[in-house]
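wait is this the right file?? whatever heres the structure
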């Protein structure tokens, strides 16, 4: 499945979580620095959150 992290496409195996997308997009340092993850509607997501094909998430 393909998700988007900060508009960057990331290919993952179905069933992977938000943290896996962040690792693949090299965004875990930003999370460690205190930034949070949000979906395209502005809802905060947890690192163990589920992903769906085509989902857009943002680190800010």
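ok assuming it is, sequence goes like this
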């Amino acid at each position: 499945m393909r998700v988007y992290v900060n508009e960057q496409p990331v290919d993952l195996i179905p069933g992977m979580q938000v943290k896996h997308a962040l690792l693949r997009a090299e965004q875990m340092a930003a999370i460690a620095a205190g930034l949070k993850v949000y979906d395209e509607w502005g809802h905060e997501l947890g690192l163990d959150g589920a992903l769906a094909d085509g989902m857009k998430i943002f680190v800010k």
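The chain has two helices and five strands. so i think its the right one actually
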